[in-house]
Amino acid sequence: RPDLAAALRELRAQYEALAGRNLQAAEDWYRARCARLHERAARSQEAVRASRREAGECRRQLQARLVEMESLRGAHQSLERQLQELEERHNAEAAGLQDTIGQLEDDLRNTKNEMARHLREYQDLLNVKMALDIEIAAYRKLLEGEENLFNMGSVGLPSLNSLPSPTYSFQPRSFSSST
C-alpha cells in the first residue's frame, strides 16, 4: 500500500508551494497594482494641483477683468454724463443762436422797410426838387423875357407904369411817388 501520509504530505507540499507561489504572485500583482495606482494617484494629484493652480490663475484673471470692467463701466458712465451735458449745452446754445438769428432777421426786415421808406421819401424829395427846378427855369425865362423888353428901350418909362405888374406866387404841388 502506498504510503498515504507521504502522498498527503507531498500533496500538501505541492499545495503549499502552489499557494506560496500564488501568494507570491498575488503579492507581486498587488505591489505592481499598488505601484501603478500610487503612480496614477501621484499623477492625478499633480494634475489636481495644476488644475487648482490654473483655476486660481483663472480666478485672479477673472477678478482683474471684473475690476477692469467696473472701472471701464465707471468711465463709460462718466463719458455718457459728459456727452449728455455737452448735448444739453449745445442745444441751449443752438436755441440761443436761433433766437439771435430770429432777432437779426427781424432787424434786417425792419432795416429793409426803413430803407424802403427812406427811398420813397428821397424819391418824393427828388420829384419835388425836379418840379422846383422846372418852375425856377420857367420863372427865369419869364424874367429874362421881361428884362429883354426892358433893355430894348422901345418902351418908355411912363409906358412901363401902364403895364400890369406881374405877380409871382409859389403854389406847392403834390407829387405821387412811384417806388
TrEMBL record:
Biological process according to GO: intermediate filament organization
GO-annotated cellular components: cytoplasm; intermediate filament; postsynaptic intermediate filament cytoskeleton
Keyword flag Transmembrane: no
SMART domains referenced in this protein's UniProt entry, alphabetically: Filament (SM01391)
Top-level taxon: Eukaryota
Coiled-coil stretches: 69-128
Cleaved signal peptide residues: none
PROSITE patterns: IF_ROD_1 (PS00226), IF_ROD_2 (PS51842)
Molecular function GO terms recorded: structural constituent of postsynaptic intermediate filament cytoskeleton
Protein's UniProt keywords contain Transmembrane helix: no
Classification via SUPFAM superfamilies: Intermediate filament protein, coiled coil region
Keywords assigned: Coiled coil, Intermediate filament
Protein name per Swiss-Prot or TrEMBL: AINX protein
Lineage, top ranks: Eukaryota, Metazoa, Chordata, Craniata, Vertebrata
Gene that produces this protein: Ina_0
